[in-house]
């Protein structure tokens, strides 16, 4: 696939601060790349260097194969064919919608129906005569996107364009903007610190940390095969556990978990995703023996709403490796692969589509499970068993 944008070793310092520390990134033409990272990691600086608002210190940027920034080269912003959609306030208040979109377009393009075309792409056909103040915030952002697309730029840079909108509107708008870019065969870069937005909207996600792109891959690959434990915890919820690899399985406090891919042996950090973790009500009689709860509803959970045999998933432990010592060789005492091990419910957070259940294992390790059947709260203090489905990823400890 043709490359619309290429960055090689791009560095940008502000005094002692290395805002970009040698960024490598490739954006294929006609795709949307989300640049995702925590505050201060360099996302905006990256965008500003690509747009030409900042000069790079070292490294090289190419657009459609042409060097636009590099040693001795700095093409001014207006000659880069790069359009920017800012967070908000992009429109000229004294110009109509059509006036805003047509601003800067050559006359032939203006007359060729391009304004109506891009308005239709963003779902605002027939709104050309409106003034910006007559539009909602979401509609104004749609016009800003239409204006960016109008001159058919080589690149559209979207700088957290949905951040000022409420959650429902944001989801709708990002879907519509994604479709508009796709329909126009535009190449886009979406800067965001919202993991869900990046995963659901982009063709590839570039994860930034400390001025570097630490991983760039398709959303599913970033989620399932994160480059390191930090990426694992930043892109979604993660249970990170110390473990020892032996005979192809990681022996964790949750029992032996098979590994994705081959791994030698030794101490590792293991990633288990929320949807792999399942909890089952633990009838009082089986509390001591950690066998799976197979009872019927009549056995009931002793203290609340986990249906026996019900499934659950998730584990979020704020990026830190959960407790327990590798030297303990957890899970090597004849336990079944992936558990089950006993746990106690510490907290239940209802999120509508699911719920997060904080759990404490017998050794004090805390993990979080996500219950998809979230209707009935799981009472604090409920005894459950936990087991892990599927395989885990591991990194040398
Ligand atoms: N003009 C500037 N002068 C000095 N330091 C700057 C300047 N712009 C950015 N920085 C610093 O460079 C680093 C990267 O900033 P940048 O704005 O690119 O991060 P970001 O990922 O976009 O953050 P946020 O999500 O908070 O917008 C930060 O440490 C920031 O303080």
UniProtKB/TrEMBL annotation:
Pfam families: ABC_tran (PF00005)
CDD domains per the UniProt record, alphabetical: ABC_Carb_Solutes_like (cd03259)
GO MF entries: ATP binding
Coiled coil: none
Keywords per UniProt: ATP-binding, Cell inner membrane, Cell membrane, Ion transport, Iron, Iron transport, Membrane, Nucleotide-binding, Translocase, Transport
Region listing for Disordered, in residue ranges: 281-341
Domain ABC transporter: 5-235
Gene3D superfamilies assigned: P-loop containing nucleotide triphosphate hydrolases
Composition skew (Low complexity), residue ranges: 291-301, 309-320
Taxonomic superkingdom: Bacteria
Protein name: ABC transporter ATP-binding protein
Gene source species: Polymorphospora lycopeni
Source organism phylogeny: Bacteria, Bacillati, Actinomycetota, Actinomycetes, Micromonosporales
């Amino acid at each position: 696939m043709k490359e619309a944008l290429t960055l090689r070793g791009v560095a940008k310092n502000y005094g002692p601060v290395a805002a970009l520390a040698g960024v490598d990134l490739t954006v294929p033409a006609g795709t949307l790349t989300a640049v995702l990272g925590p505050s201060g990691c360099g996302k905006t600086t990256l965008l500003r260097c690509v747009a030409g608002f900042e000069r790079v210190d070292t490294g090289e940027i190419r657009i459609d194969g042409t060097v636009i920034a590099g040693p001795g080269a700095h093409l001014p912003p207006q000659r880069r064919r790069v359009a920017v959609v800012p967070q908000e306030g992009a429109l000229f208040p004294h110009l109509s919608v059509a006036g805003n979109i047509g601003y800067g377009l050559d006359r032939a393009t203006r007359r060729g129906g391009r304004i109506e075309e891009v308005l239709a792409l963003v779902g605002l056909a027939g709104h050309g005569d409106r003034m910006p103040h007559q539009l909602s915030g979401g509609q104004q952002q749609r016009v800003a996107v239409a204006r960016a697309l109008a001159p058919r730029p080589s690149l559209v840079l979207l700088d957290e364009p949905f951040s000022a909108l409420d959650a429902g509107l944001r989801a709708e708008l990002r879907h519509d903007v994604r479709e508009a870019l796709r329909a126009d065969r535009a190449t886009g870069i979406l800067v965001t610190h919202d993991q869900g937005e990046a995963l659901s909207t982009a063709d590839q996600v570039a994860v930034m940390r400390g001025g570097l792109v630490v991983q760039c891959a398709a959303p599913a690959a970033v989620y399932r095969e994160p480059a390191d434990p930090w990426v694992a915890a930043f892109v979604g919820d993660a249970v990170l556990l110390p473990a020892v690899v032996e005979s192809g399985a990681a022996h964790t406090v949750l029992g032996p978990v098979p590994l994705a891919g081959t791994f030698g042996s030794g101490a590792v950090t293991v990633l288990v995703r929320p949807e792999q973790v399942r909890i089952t009500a633990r009838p009082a009689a089986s509390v001591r023996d950690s066998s799976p709860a197979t009872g019927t509803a009549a056995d009931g959970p002793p203290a609340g709403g986990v249906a026996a045999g019900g499934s659950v998933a998730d584990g979020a432990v704020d990026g830190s490796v959960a407790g327990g010592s590798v030297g303990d060789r957890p899970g090597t005492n004849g336990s079944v692969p992936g558990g089950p091990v006993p746990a106690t419910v510490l907290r239940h957070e209802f999120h509508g589509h699911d719920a997060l259940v904080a759990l404490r294992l017998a050794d004090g390790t805390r993990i979080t499970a996500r219950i998809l059947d979230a209707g009935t709260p799981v009472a604090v203090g409920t005894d459950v068993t936990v087991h892990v489905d599927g395989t885990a990823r591991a990194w040398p400890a």
